[in-house]
Amino acid sequence: MTRIKHVSTLFLALGLAAGMSACAPAGSNDASEDGDSAVECNVGISMPTRSLERWINDGEGLKEKLEAKDCDVDLQYADDKTDQQISQIQNQVAGGAKILVVAAIDGKTLGPTLESAKDQGVTVIAYDRLINGTDAVDYYATFDNYKVGQLQGEFLEEQLALADGKGPYNLEPFAGSPDDNNAGFFFSGAWDVLLPYVEKGQLVVPSGKSPASNDQWTSIGILGWQSADAQAEMDNRLQSFYTGGDQVDVVLSPNDSLALGIEASLDGAGYKPGTDWPLITGQDADVANIKALLADRQSMTVWKDTRELGAQVETMIDALVAGNDVEVNDTETYDNGVKVVPTYILDPVVVTKPDVQTTLVDSGFVSADDIGL
User: Fold this and answer.
1) What is the pLDDT of residue 22?
2) What is the C-alpha to C-alpha distance for residues 370 and 192, in angstroms, rounded to an integer?
3) What is the pTM of this model?
4) H helices of the chain, where?
5) Of 218, 221, 160, residue with least CA distance to 194
6) Which end of the chain is flanked by fewer CB atoms within 10 Å, N or C?
7) Is 274 left (phi over 0), alpha (psi -120 to 50) or beta?
């Protein structure tokens, strides 16, 4: 079973709940109590795009935290262009950055650039997306991305009473960008829950776009996580496979950006919230999608409180600057093909319509005015 491959991740979640942690040496040198391995707080932050709300929040939030400590910070957004991200990182290193925080557009292409940075004594922290194929990544900070998908799958399993044998339901699954390392984790987490019900016939995929295994997830991936492309894909499925009066009952969407495009397609096809609107998953708790939750256009979103992720990266940087050990809580799971990257993992949370006020507004993640409450 594919689920077995992820046993270590599931045990990790239990370990996090128990507060287990470990430490890894700061940078590429052994840490020392007198701060001999301390580095200058000159930080280059490389974010993939401004087209998704979450990356703007992540980048600006971390920059603000670090500048409050008098760090020199260069924040760059790469417009989803790998060559642009490479150039920006090179310029950050040339400009004196001693620590790089990188959310990669393509986790397989940054190796040579980061290896050059490492040769110049730069410490690299992969931010939320693992960077593969290089030993130049010192640390990784992320959420449990397999669990993100698992929560989506379990939500659908519960809402549809699949464990009780209910069905059949018409399902249309989507996956994220094929160049995003996290997208595979999202899909695997969900598909490990849902595929058995597809195989039993409780979930039917009229479009035929149903990967036979987790490894085939890229066949339904939406490049760049673009809402417009998700809308076009959903339009095509509806026009090609739902012409005989059949209705979509459930859509597996790995994030909020794709969910918006899928929702727009359903709206254009005449589906109505409260009558025949399908269950739709999401991730990120973007403002537009919180509004969709409140309007019964989206069923759930998996919230990754990026403020916590930023705070953890800030803590890592503090340790590096002081020459102390960098705290991690996983040294086994994230193998990038060259090394197992010391990682700090945070837990995601399911948010549904009743949770918006208590989980998102009361925590200060969004304001009531921004979402129309």
Assistant:
1) 53
2) 36
3) 0.80
4) 7-17, 53-67, 82-94, 111-119, 145-159, 181-200, 227-241, 256-268, 287-294, 306-322
5) 160
6) N
7) left
φ, ψ at 280 (rounded to 5°)? -135, 130
CA dihedral 87→89→91→97, nearest 10 degrees, is 180
Contact in structure between 72 and 144 (CB atoms under 8 Å): no
Confidence band of 193 (pLDDT split at 50, 70, 90): very high
Name which of 18-22, 41-45, 79-83 the model is least confident about: 18-22
> Per-residue pLDDT tens for 80-104?
999 999 999 999 999 999 999 999 9
> In the Cβ-directed half-sphere of 129, how many Cα atoms lie within 13 Å?
24
Q: What are the pLDDT digits (tens) for 51-73?
A: 888 899 999 999 999 999 999 99
CB 219 within 8 A of CB 187: no
Cα torsion 188, 194, 199, 205: sign: negative
- C-alpha dihedral sign at 15, 16, 20, 24: positive
Distance CA 34, CA 177 (A): 45
Q: 3-state class of 22 per DSSP?
A: strand
Residue identified by tokens 């260069």 is 74
The DSSP secondary-structure symbol of 2 reads G
pLDDT at 77 over 70: yes
